[in-house]
Write a structure and sequence with these properties.
Blueprint: E1 5-6, E2 9-10, E3 13-20, E4 23-30, E5 35-37, E6 40-42, H1 47-56, E7 71-77, E8 82-87, H2 89-92, H3 95-104, E9 112-115, H4 126-131
Parallel strand pairs: 8-9
Antiparallel strand pairs: 1-2, 3-4, 3-7, 5-6, 6-7, 7-8
Length: 141
């Protein structure tokens, strides 16, 4: 990931991420290049597309599907001017991981909300899905 620089400052970013063990995998867009969707600015790449591209170049294991490791997404709300970091509960339990994501994406901590996307949400790793007795086929992105 090559950070974007504007007038010498790091720009906050939106994007997708995974925690593969202790390794943070990111694909991001600075706000200036993010896509608008209603009141939100979002990253254009889906988890599935990016993971598949990373598998092709050998950056992530071929035997692991994109929805197996804990993952999440950061969005920006244009009305409230706040960032929303949605993540798997396995990430949220580890404060170091949340701090690592916030730092890597240059998010202002006082403007960033952190949460799961709810009990029916799709940012759940395979362990959380199995623990809830659900099928991986219920997930998307």
């Amino acid at each position: 990931m090559k950070p974007s620089v504007q007038m010498g400052l790091q720009q906050p970013m939106v994007g997708i991420f995974w925690m593969l063990g202790k390794r943070l995998i990111l694909d991001v867009s600075p706000l200036s290049r993010a896509e608008a969707s209603g009141d939100w600015l979002d990253h254009s790449m889906s988890h599935d597309e990016f993971w598949t591209a990373q598998q092709r170049v050998g950056a992530v294991p071929l035997e692991i599907e994109y929805l197996e490791p804990p993952r999440g997404r950061v969005l920006f709300n244009t009305k409230t001017k706040r960032y929303m970091l949605y993540a798997d509960r396995c990430i949220l339990k580890k404060k170091f991981a949340v701090k690592q994501i916030i730092k890597a994406m240059h998010l202002p901590s006082k403007q960033t909300d952190v949460a799961t996307d709810g009990p029916e949400g799709h940012y759940r790793c395979s362990r959380c899905i199995e623990a809830a007795g659900l099928s991986k086929d219920n997930d998307w992105d």
